[in-house]
Design a protein that fits this description.
Elements: E1 4-5, E2 10-14, E3 21-27, H1 37-45, E4 64-68, E5 70-71, E6 74-75, E7 80-85, H2 107-113, H3 131-147, E8 151-159, E9 162-163, H4 174-181, H5 190-205, E10 212-219, H6 233-241, E11 247-252, H7 263-266, E12 270-272, E13 278-280, E14 288-289, E15 292-293, E16 298-304, E17 314-318, E18 323-327, H8 338-360
Antiparallel strand pairs: 1-2, 2-3, 3-7, 4-7, 5-6, 8-9, 8-10, 10-16, 11-16, 12-13, 14-15, 17-18
Helix pairs in contact: 1-3, 3-8, 6-8
């Protein structure tokens, strides 16, 4: 399994959903950077399970223990190793899944690829549980980026048919991002949040699940971040965002909408501000031209599929018996993972952007 990411700033995530601990090793951080562990913990708490009616009832404290890499509260050049204990596992809920793979999960493909040696409990290393150490690594990177004037935030753009309004792709500010991410259910319009919560609750009561879209933005990026061809902004960010379980689509700027436009409609005209800075009047390119940051807000939308673990009966197979069968998934699962995935998207962006920033220096 490949569980590492990055060239200058490297992360390696370890553990499984039901292993004793999960965690991350972060290597290559600039030295002398003060890391506020309390702030990092608050960031991680945003994705913690069992906190509200629309998430899994599995409760985990997700308290991070840093065992290396910091001295007197600052990065010292050694890799940071952070661990989180798994304290509320119910492995028996997954006993049948080694034989009967869940539709929409990695159970079947992992069974074949790893010849039955994979840890199938709770999804093992494929589980969304592994986004906890991802979020810690992202929180560390985000603190370093913010000292360089780069700020990241996200909101829930849609859940099923419920929709929020989009960020202003040209004029979004760090203050507006901070206001949205401070909300318990991060939408721009509070009325959209209430509609989305009702949609999630209806899905839960019906034994079903729903997906949605998260819109994220980075502001303050200087012009020139990104390394074509394969380490461009879109390439690098897509690689780490697709590592978040349940992500099925990513678009930058106008995204798939550009396919319906003429070039004259899609191109963003340049102009010079009074300060002398070169900007674009619109931002359909989403802050990236040729895989390199343009100085405009970096705008990304990430699509999440509905949680595949649902209590409705689903058709599957018995691998041992070689016959068709029916599965009803037990255990504790989110009827919608989108609200808890918001900090995961922010974290993934922070890790990729700090890696690219260090290459850019």
């Amino acid at each position: 399994m490949s569980s590492s990411f990055g060239e200058k700033v490297k992360i390696s995530i370890f553990g499984q959903s039901h292993s004793e601990v999960i965690g991350v090793v972060i290597d290559g951080l600039p030295v002398g950077e003060e890391i506020d562990l309390a702030a990092a913990q608050r960031f991680l708490d945003r994705r913690a399970p069992g906190k509200n009616a629309y998430s899994t009832p599995r409760k985990e404290g997700d308290q991070v223990r840093v065992v290396s890499g910091l001295f007197d509260g600052k990065t010292c050049g050694a890799p940071i190793c952070a661990m989180i204990e798994n304290t509320n596992t119910r492995s028996k809920d997954y006993a049948q899944l080694k034989d009967m793979p869940r539709p929409g999960h990695a159970d079947f493909t992992a069974e074949i690829k790893y010849h039955g040696f994979q840890d199938y409990r709770g999804g093992g290393h494929f589980s969304g549980r592994l986004t906890a150490p991802l979020c810690f690594a992202g929180a560390v990177c985000l603190q370093i980026l913010e000292r360089r004037g780069i700020h990241i935030g996200a909101h829930i753009l849609s859940i099923h048919e419920g929709k929020d309004k989009s960020f202003d792709a040209v004029g979004i500010t760090k203050e507006e991002l901070a206001k949205v991410i401070a909300k318990e259910f991060p939408t721009i319009e509070d009325s959209a949040a209430e509609k989305m919560k009702a949609i999630i609750q209806n899905a839960r009561e019906g034994g079903d699940s729903v997906g949605g879209v998260i819109e994220s933005v980075a502001v303050g990026l200087p012009v020139g971040i990104g390394e074509p061809m394969f380490d461009g902004l879109e390439s690098k960010l897509s690689s780490i965002l697709f590592a978040i379980p349940a992500v099925k689509g990513i678009e930058f700027g106008e995204g798939f909408g550009v396919a319906t436009l003429f070039g004259s409609q899609n191109n963003d005209s340049f102009y010079i501000e009074e300060t002398g800075a070169i900007k674009t009047k619109t931002n359909r390119h989403g802050g990236s031209l040729g895989g390199i940051s343009s100085g405009m807000p970096l705008v990304i939308r990430t699509a999440f599929k509905p949680t595949p673990s649902i209590s409705k009966n689903q058709a599957t197979v018995s691998l041992q018996k070689g016959e068709n069968t029916v599965l009803s998934v037990t255990g504790r699962h989110d009827p919608c993972i989108v609200p808890r995935a918001v900090p995961c998207v922010e974290a993934a962006m922070a890790i990729a952007l700090l890696d690219l920033y260090e290459l850019f220096k």
